[in-house]
Design goal:
Length: about 250
């Protein structure tokens, strides 16, 4: 047992329905200080909705979200950001006509109102995510990989203790995935705790100490990447009813 690792994030009995569809159904999870935790699950499992409820973009129907022990359930995103938690978005939307530097400064203004300080912070963070040479490029001129890095940088510029990453590797090639995995690892080494939604299993396996699996709004498994990959219920959720038996003894 690891002693002394406190919970940064606690989610309990969280529910969110859309017109009767239970997108998140009694979900619970914990993220401890310094961890990288992954949230995985088939398409439509409720991962993004759970993130949105945690970060204040949706008001949950019921349940509790605690950040460092404080109840933040239903608080507005900017207040949650000020409290030290920020999320990125799956669909990246950089400001197209302004530079990478200015895009990152938008995040930095969450911590400072001084323009020079925000610019200096933006430049330091750009270097941290490997965008030091692209500071003057316009948002519109970035590749998919560049937009993903910028999304990460904008979030990081707000100075979070807990960073929620929604599919930052989607659409990237294996080389780009390898590079962003290293960036994420370095962010954690710098003291930021990370919860990430990810479909790229190679990245989940190499980054995450623990994984939660969501299916139809419910957490169906939790454990190390190897433990959840060997879980019959998880195999069923991804591949359909009876899959575990069809795959044979290893998953039965
Ligand atoms: N704003 C909304 N209004 C109505 N239904 C929604 C809304 N957002 C999500 N849903 C539905 O809630 C369910 C969960 O969606 P969600 O996007 O959270 O899943 P996901 O696990 O993030 O999926 P993916 O991996 O495909 O991004 C889906 O059935 C989706 O259609």
């Amino acid at each position: 047992m690891i002693l002394g690792r406190r919970d940064v994030l606690e989610v309990r009995r969280l529910c969110k329905a859309f017109s009767g569809l239970k997108a998140v159904d009694d979900a619970a999870l914990d993220v401890r200080a310094g961890e990288i935790v992954a949230l995985i699950g088939p398409n439509g499992a409720g991962k993004t909705t759970l993130f949105a409820c945690i970060a204040g973009f949706h008001k949950p129907d019921s349940g509790v979200v605690r950040l460092d022990g404080a109840d933040i359930t239903g608080r507005a995103p900017h207040r949650i950001c000020a409290a030290g938690m920020v999320r990125t978005f799956q669909i990246t939307q950089p400001f197209a006509t302004i530079s990478v530097r200015e895009n990152i400064m938008v995040g930095a203004y969450a911590r400072t109102s001084d323009r020079d300080a925000a610019a200096a912070r933006a430049e330091a963070i750009a270097r941290q995510v490997g965008m030091g040479a692209q500071l003057d490029r316009r948002g519109a001129d970035l590749t998919v990989a560049g937009r993903k890095r910028l999304e990460l940088a904008r979030a990081l510029a707000t100075g979070p203790r807990l960073l929620l990453l929604d599919e930052v590797m989607a659409g990237l090639n294996p080389t780009e995935i390898g590079e962003i995995v290293e960036v994420i690892r370095a962010i954690r080494t710098g003291g930021v705790t990370i919860l990430l939604i990810e479909h790229v299993m190679q990245a989940v396996t190499s980054l995450a100490e623990r994984v939660y699996v969501l299916n139809q709004g419910r957490v169906i498994a939790e454990g190390t990447p190897a433990q959840v990959a060997a879980d019959a219920g998880v195999v069923e959720a991804y591949l359909g009813h009876g899959a575990a038996a069809r795959l044979g003894g290893a998953h039965a």
